[in-house]
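Z., the sequence and structure:
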Amino acid sequence: MEAKRFLKVLLLPASLCALVACTSIEVKTTPYPGLQKLAATDPDKVEILRAAPARAHDKLGEIQIDSSNDPAPPLVDLATTLQEEAAKLGADAVVIMDYREMTISDPKAGTPPPANAPNITIHRALAIAIKYR
C-alpha cells in the first residue's frame, strides 16, 4: 500500500509536467499607435464578445493567440488568456474577430516532411481589445 502511495506522489507531478510541456500558447499583443497608455483593468471583468458592441468604444489593439497542442486547450484557457492580455491594455472588453483551426505537418518532422509525418493542429484567435467611452 505504501509503495502505491509513493508512486502516486512521484508520478503525479511528472505527469503534470509532461502535460504542461505539450501545451503551447503563444500570444502577440499589438497596441494601436498614438493611443494614450491606460491603467490595467481587472482581467475577470473584461467581457468577451463575438461582435463589436453598439455602445461607443475605442479600439486599443489586437491580440493574436496561437495554440499548437493537440488536443486543443480548453476554451476557458484561451478566454482567460484573452482577458489577461486585454486587461494589460486597459480594456473593458475583447471582441473575437476570427477563430480557426489549421492542421499542418509537425515542423519537427523535417522539410519536406515524410509522408507519414504526424500532423499538429494550430488554434488561432484574433481579437481586438476595446475601451468603453
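The two ends are 63 Å apart (CA to CA). Helices lie at 2-22, 75-88.

Let me know what you think.
H.
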